Amino acid sequence: MSAVAPDWLNNGDNAWQLTAASLVALQSVPGLMILYGGMVQTKWVINSAFMCFYAFAMVLVCWVLYAYKAAFGKQMLPFVGTPGPVVSMEYELTQAILPAANITAAYPMSTMVYFQFCFAAITVILMAGAFLGRMSFRAWIFFVPLWLTLSYTVGAFSVWGGGFLFQRGIIDYSGGYVIHLSSGTAGFVGAYWIGPRLKSDRDNFVPNNVLMMLTGAGILWIGWNGFNGGDPYTASPDAGAAVLNTNITTSMSLLTWMILDVIVYKKPSVIGAVQGMITGLVAITPAAGVVAGWGAVVIGLCSGSIPWVSMNIVGKRFRLFEIVDDTLGVVHTHAVAGAMGGFLTGIFATSKGCISFACVSSGGAEMGHGVQLGWQMAGICFIVGWNAFWTSAIMLFIKYVLRIPLRMTEEELMIGDDAIHGESAYTFGDITHTHGLTLHGHEPSRKLTDIEAEAGTPETGEGSKAAKQA
């Protein structure tokens, strides 16, 4: 007996939306896990990847219990919806509707909920890039659900879900504001409250595996086809335009960043090329399906140069960027690039693109709608202000009310993964550094120090010190 599909279901739209969602999910797990794991020092590989792994799971649980409806449900306040669960079969099988935005899609609510979850998860994971190498994992456990609840849902509802910025016609095609500007702002502010890494770690921050970093970057780039291609909520011509524009801008941005590296530093840098790739992906995100191809080229030139200046010149001359230890430069690659992309969207958005996207706006300044630039700037101010305030409030709540240190202990900062998780990213030979936990969670019968003592191994270096203290 075959199941009967409802009249409102479009099989092609449903298949594409689930595919797009899966591509976005792959950007986080494993994409950013691999990217972060390759970019950090060896002692931080597991902790960096595990922060992503945990956040992905925690966000989904919160999302289906209450956060989805706060971001995309019925309006409770001009900037947030009424929270509630989305876990009943009756709800999951109904047609996808965003009530406050008056948007209907030709697939079930379950598809919409999962698609939007993937965006919420990657926002938190992108922010983690600013905290790597010193944030307490216990603090991260509490930070993720609190920030999702108090910060992300508000930005998502205000811009996408039918809130006050949506009603004013702000254009954020796929998250330049909701995802990148918010994660970049929150990452920078949160890094201030957590405090810096060890001076030795900041001075010698060398990627432990460049090939692994490039693999993660490749997953991130290709996954962005679902990131931007899925946001028309249908397998439309606009989805194709968004995917093409995404790749145009990213390629142009990568090349521009690389050329600047060659001009200034006399060498093309792999890490620099990855940064240029990321800024291109971020900058085109608010504009992907509403600008023409030539607009995507201009945005790519700007995203490969303006964040380059922000990171390599401004970031090295202003003391604020020395005080705030933003590990992977998230404020430059996401906040600066996201705000710049949103501003340029206000210039280059076409009327035809806005109609295809079912946008309230009629186009940007280039089409004679100069007021759009004002609303794009207003959106930047709101997202930056809201995230700066609530990120600070959450950090202070965790530190002073929950009494959980935001920063690791000095011992953990010196040792890294072994001290925090009892595991090492790379183990060679028969001796592995297992301090307290093994694969099945049992206490190991013989500690590393016992084996070293029997073998007559000199106990020197941080690894032996860690074994003693463990």
Show the helix and strand layout.
Elements: H1 11-39, H2 45-72, E1 75-77, E2 80-81, H3 89-92, E3 95-98, E4 103-108, H4 109-128, H5 137-159, H6 164-167, H7 176-194, H8 199-203, H9 210-229, H10 237-265, H11 270-284, H12 293-317, H13 319-323, H14 330-348, H15 351-356, H16 371-401, H17 410-415, H18 417-421, H19 448-455, H20 461-469
Antiparallel strand pairs: 1-2, 3-4
Helix pairs in contact: 1-2, 1-4, 1-9, 2-4, 2-5, 4-7, 5-7, 5-16, 7-14, 7-16, 9-10, 9-11, 10-11, 10-12, 11-12, 11-14, 12-14, 14-16
How would you characterize this protein structure?
There is one protein chain. With 470 residues, this protein is mainly alpha-helical. The chain folds into 2 domains: 28-401, Ammonium transporter AmtB like domains (Ammonium transporter fold), CATH 1.10.3430.10; 427-469, no CATH class. It is 66% helix and 3% strand. It is built from 20 helices and 4 strands. The chain has helices at 11-39, 45-72, 89-92, 109-128, 137-159, 164-167, 176-194, 199-203, 210-229, 237-265, 270-284, 293-317, 319-323, 330-348, 351-356, 371-401, 410-415, 417-421, 448-455, 461-469, and strands at 75-77, 80-81, 95-98, 103-108. The strands form 2 sheets. A two-stranded antiparallel sheet has the order 1-2. The protein has a two-stranded antiparallel sheet with strand order 3-4. A hairpin with a 2-residue loop joins β1 and β2 (80-81). α4 (109-128) runs parallel beside α7 and α11 (270-284) packs across α14. It is globular and about 60 Å long. Mean pLDDT is 90; it is low at 430-470.
